[in-house]
Amino acid sequence: MPTIRHEGLPRQAEFWRSSARIRAFIGGLGSGKTRAGAIEILRQPAGSLGIVVAPTYRVLQDATQRTFLERCRRAEDAGARLISAHHEARQETRLVNGTTILWRSATDPDRLRGINAGWSWVDEAASIDLEVWLVLLGRLRREPGRAWITTTPVGAQHWTAKLEGEGAHLVRAATRENTHLPPEYLASLEAAYDEQWREQELEGRFVDWSGGLIRREWIKTIHPDAVPSGLAWSRAWDLAASDRTEADETASVRGALGPDGTLYLDAPIAGRWAWPDARRVIVQTAQQEAHLVRSVGVEQVASWRAAVDDIAQDPAWYGVTLRRLSPRGDKVACASPWAARASAGRVACVAGHDWTKWLEQWSCFPTGKHDDRVDAVSRLSEMLAQGTNAAPLLPPPPTSARKVF
Q1: Digit-coded pLDDT (tens) for 258-269
Q2: Full-model pTM
Q3: Cα(171)–Cα(9) distance, rounded to whole angstroms?
Q4: Do 139 and 120 touch, CB atoms closer than 8 A?
Q5: Are 243 and 273 in contact (CB under 8 A)?
Q6: How far apart are the first and last CA of the chain?
Q7: Domains in the chain: how many in total?
């Protein structure tokens, strides 16, 4: 493989120079984390086998893999061919020096087992469970036996915050250190975030959120007439099928992203129901909102897969896409994207509903007794981030066109 000169920012260079077996590039937004991780692939020994993991296939293809392939294309434009073959269907790339890259999603950790690799890279590691990281470490049975992560931090209790204490070489980069960013980009973020969010999102520091991740004053309440027209709405369900008084509730909220990135929340639902009753509420809601909601996501963890299979057979889903939702990372990691949006004043609750308990639970998270109403918004935020509200509403298809995945 031709020798390629990789010019980078000082923190990226520090990351590349490290000979540590485990490394972590922890940086603020736009600090060059993914680029640092992508170029590190090209520094691995010829003929090695590596695994690259991102939280979902959407993140993998839109950010992680794209960054790597674009770097290779730029090298090719300069006369240096790096890629021998890229198989989209198999999600596998082979370099001209014999190195093989397996691109994988963290949605199913068991699919990572059975691979004997020499190195691994986890991008956006804060949104990935510790289990995935441990599985990957167990795959490093070949030379050189290296692993690295790139991520924006999410909290002082997350597993990524403990890597340095376990012997990993941690490189921290702030957003402002990337001199290639437009000045207005950093200025807009600094103006949007409060002090703690600036520490996390811009300085790349692990923040102790025991005092509360979400502040009540960040959440706006707006009149229905103030909601932009033409939004494509989705609904997410966080399941807790029990009618016990102290149990978590089954919680759901409808939402859409506005043109300016504002997350609009509407029609909240919460209750303590045994599964037959919870099932009935989910199905009836889908029927009532079929004219508006294009995509409905239902949490499936542990035994809930059978529950999703059960409701998928109901005729209520004709014309509606039913999505299976699986948490990505711990609860703080899952809530951080929409909490950051709230910090910037871009989460709005539509008036006409009682949001009192929702606001109370959000403001007590992550130390409060219950978090089902937080999780419901986190599930919705994940759906919207994956583009489920990108398509315009269409007339309901024939009953034979039901989609479940």
Answers
A1: 999 999 999 999
A2: 0.75
A3: 12
A4: yes
A5: yes
A6: 41
A7: 2
